[in-house]
């Protein structure tokens, strides 16, 4: 048996094992997947950033139960208003600190880990993010001068413009241990340590399907064309994100998010989608997964 044959057999065995694992993973409820992920992590202290997710109370509790220590949020903080009271009560969930001071929750926390103290600061950018937030630079100044002297300070800067993230890194160099960008979902290859010791990367990327846009396969949901079976929804929020529009809809009594590629997706135009506008969308039946409402188990496996 030559080397090429051995390598081929090893590859086929590895591929078969991956497929079995994938089948098992898809059959598990979300909480079990989180527990499984935590079991195989190499660090015990986990900071999770929720990207494009309208966090619900039960989801937050599942993330903490699976091992998350701190959760940071971004421009989707208020997607599920049920989380509002929980933000007030739980200091381990941070919304952007430069939201209006009258909004619920907090954006900065210091956590005692025994031998060390870790501070976490969550900020949102203002360039191309029309949230009416305060200046993130002066907010960082104010909070970092609050008197605490933590061993490490970590900053999650949820911003659209790479220039704004980079400017913040230069501004805070030497005052924080690490600063990373989120929101643009694509990991950048510019990780570095700044001259005064601050670790930096423009965007961490996201956890999601590889062949996808923001974790949603682009062929799954599309605006309905003439003669197609369709679902009707009403636009709650329309976010222009460069070449795509993110539509937050009320459809069939549920919150739904679809992504419309303004230049190429079927039925799309360059015009904006107005609040309260009725639209119709559809998706292929081959992408539907059926889950047990009680256990969350995938019924296809």
Measured distance between first and last alpha carbons: 37 Å
Rounded Rg: 22 Å
Share of helix, binned: 10-25%
The structural class is alpha/beta
Task: Give me the secondary-structure topology.
Layout: H1 3-26, H2 30-39, E1 46-49, H3 57-65, E2 68-72, H4 84-89, E3 93-94, E4 108-112, E5 117-124, H5 136-144, E6 152-158, H6 162-172, E7 178-182, E8 192-193, E9 199-201, E10 222-223, E11 231-241, E12 244-251, E13 254-261, E14 278-282
Parallel strand pairs: 1-2, 2-3, 5-6, 6-7, 7-9
Antiparallel strand pairs: 4-5, 8-9, 10-14, 11-12, 11-14, 12-13
If you had to describe this structure to a student in words, what would you say it looks like?
This protein is of the alpha/beta class and 301 residues long. The chain has helices spanning 3-26, 30-39, 57-65, 84-89, 136-144, 162-172, and strands at 46-49, 68-72, 93-94, 108-112, 117-124, 152-158, 178-182, 192-193, 199-201, 222-223, 231-241, 244-251, 254-261, 278-282. The protein contains six helices and 14 strands. A hairpin with a 4-residue loop joins β4 (108-112) and β5. The radius of gyration is 22 Å and the shape is globular.
